[in-house]
Amino acid sequence: MSQQEDRELGREFAEHMDPGSASGFDRFATFTADAAKAVGDSLGNLAGSLTGKSLEDRIQEYSEVYGEILLHLNDRMDGLEKRQSSLEDARLSADIINRLKEMRKQDPEFFTVEGQQQIRSQARIARILSILAFFASLAALFAVIFKV
């Protein structure tokens, strides 16, 4: 018998004895493959440490990540500066604040919701009356032109 046939016979025997479990040969093969991979990774890490390549790779990775973070922070700061400058432009001067206080003393209803609703309804009525006046004047114009 050849070595390959011996292995096959051993696998078949192990499967018949304990079906569903891996044979000793498979476990040994898996163990040796994992061990070889671990040794290869360790040697790669050791070589990278000795040559400085792994350190260079980490520095490059961190530089990219922190560069993106800094760019994002810079964009945020620019946005905040624009917002602050627009708020400074919209800041009320002391004169305007004093005038608003005087208006509130003169007409306290102006600064309430009910007062604003009343002003809106009066504006709506004035708009309707102005539209009616426009059409009445237009009708009077046509009456004068065509002498109806």
Question: What does this 3D model show about the protein?
Answer:
It is built from 5 helices and no strands. With 148 residues, it is an all-alpha fold. It is elongated. The chain starts with a helix and ends with a helix. The mean pLDDT is 79.
Give the secondary structure arrangement, pairings included.
Blueprint: H1 3-17, H2 24-51, H3 53-90, H4 94-106, H5 113-146
Mean residue pLDDT: 79
Taking the sheet with the most strands, its summary is: none
- Contiguous runs where pLDDT drops below 50 for at least 5 residues: none
Proportion of strand residues: under 5%
N-to-C series of helices and strands: HHHHH
Number of beta-strand segments: 0
The number of helices is 5
Radius of gyration, CA atoms, in whole angstroms: 44 Å
What characteristic shape results from the CA principal axes?
A: elongated
DSSP helix fraction: over 70%
Kindly, what is the distance between the CA atoms of the first and last residues, rounded to a whole number of angstroms? 128 Å
**Structural class determined from secondary elements:** mainly alpha
